[in-house]
Specification:
Length: 129
Amino acid sequence: MNYWGTSNGSFDIYGGTASIGNLAMDAGGTTTLYGGTLITNAVTIASATQGLFDFRGGEWRIGGTDLGALGYWVNSGIVKVNGQTIDISDGTLSVDAQTNPGYLTVTLIPEPATLLMLGLGGLLLKKRG
């Protein structure tokens, strides 16, 4: 399956696994990954002013892409995290080229406050038991 962005179109993934031949973000469309796994064999982006990928959770496997291209997409605002432009080097994203050979596997790294709350919740559950 290929997904081609449209001027007002959106493609939202909330869970499960979606495998797409070519994710083409070149016509102003928006793709949002809330959860699950998105596997793309290729990504086509015409310019930094067209198309948007908003990463809110889950895992994105990008085939045929090098880290430099992903860095450009993130730093230029094509790929956002929770609707915000970030810097590829700020530690918000984990990029792994080893786990799934031939793909960059991109996941979000939870902010420290989220990890702290998860840890405190675990301690409270342990104390109850």
